[in-house]
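Go through this chain.

——
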Amino acid sequence: MSRTERGVLIVRILRELKTHRQEVLGNVPADRCVWIDRLIASVSSTISEIVNMQDVEFNRVLSEFEKLMATLQNISHPEKLPRTIH
């Protein structure tokens, strides 16, 4: 993946985080959203560093973002979780 493609991907992830913050957490008190606000600020300020990581490090970061996005999706839409039948 080129540096440009990496940058586009990280910006897209950042956009998803911002959208989640606004749409899902918009009515949550700000003091309970410090974690996501800090994450957004951190990613925003380190895009160039993330883009320039070695492939292994970059893939690890992508993997962690993938897990985070899946977790945020599951938390914000619990009704979409599959039912466990016993």
Observations:
- The two ends are 44 Å apart (CA to CA).
- Residues 55-76 form the longest helix (22 residues).
